[in-house]
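Many introductory courses stop at the sequence. We go one step further.
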Amino acid sequence: MRRTYQSRSGAFVRSAEGEQGFWPSYADMMSAVALILFFLMLLSYIQNLITGNDLQNTQEVLAETRATLDLTLRQVEEAESELEKVTIDLDEAKLTLDEQKGKLDEQSAQLASQKDELAAQDKLLADQKALIGEQEQYLKAANKELLAMRSRMQTIAVLRLSILEQIRDSVVSVMGDASKVSIGDNGSIVLDEGVLFDLGSSAIKPAARPTLDRLVEVFKSFLSDSENVKYVDSIVISGHTDSTGTDAENRVLSTARANAVLNYLLTSGKGELNDYASFFCAAGYGETRPVADNDTAEGRAQNRRIEISITLRDDTIMDIVESYLELELPESAAAQAARGTQG
């Protein structure tokens, strides 16, 4: 049997015998297929080797990844725990902040209220300063008025003392004995009983007439001055006794002695005091107003006396006081506010 090839890859040429040339070609083809399969299996093996290595590497990487993931999960859990704590702290801080904000709001309200109160106090202070200014002006005016009133009162006091001293000095100049006449603590001229009367008598002794005449001159000089007269209300002649005898007897005796002096002053000479009779009066007090102890002779002698006192006019004094009271006192800030509210 003979075969011929057209080329290396060409088909087998039929032989003269027909179909017998097919089988060698099939065997070659199967060999080629087997060879291809072998190569495919080899490639598959190699690929499996490579894939196995890759899988192992992948598993190792996966294990590392899992470990890393576990670590990350723990870290996440820790972070979540920390976050929860931070959240709690933040909530507490928020509550604290809210409380502090509330307190700050309260303090702001209190501060606003205090500002209002301070403004009101500033206004009150300004009002009080203004009032103090008004009161200072008032005090200046009041002090000026007080000085004027004091001057007028001193004038009256000096005038009263002056006439009393004139009476005393005149009586002393006539009698030559200063021990028998004095100015009492009550501002009256005190004449010893022995100057004018005998013991138990209401008749004026002749030796006393020069003394009483001198009194007439002094009173006339004093009352003839209109500036003096406007301050005088009355000139009182009062009689006083010691405790010897009954109360009735002493009242009668003291009254009789006072009237005797008064009658002499108004009727002596040319009646020089008749024009001023309305200023004079007499009173008897008996033993009711002692100035010394009636248990001793010396004390009883001091109690037996005639007093001459000058009473100032109440309306004159009141005019002075009222002129002072007429000064208007500035209203207080509270009074002004109350008056404004009522208006």
